[in-house]
Design brief:
This protein is mainly alpha-helical and about 55 residues long. Helix content is about 75%, strand content about 0%. α1 runs antiparallel to α2. The two termini are about 20 Å apart.
């Protein structure tokens, strides 16, 4: 997976600006989103590494 502009936090930041969402709410939404994204990728990587062993 390649992180491309227009996905994830990039899109969230642009939406925050366009829809004039409070910066603190947007910060926490992006932080929680990136946390769950990282956990999912970490879990998938760990599972695939165990599958190769």
């Amino acid at each position: 997976m390649i992180p491309l502009p227009g996905t994830g936090v990039y899109a969230g930041s642009i939406a925050t600006y366009l829809f004039k969402i409070e910066k603190q709410k947007a910060f926490w939404a992006n932080t929680i989103g990136i946390f769950f994204s990282s956990v999912i990728i970490w879990s998938a990587t760990l599972a695939s590494m165990k599958g190769m062993s």
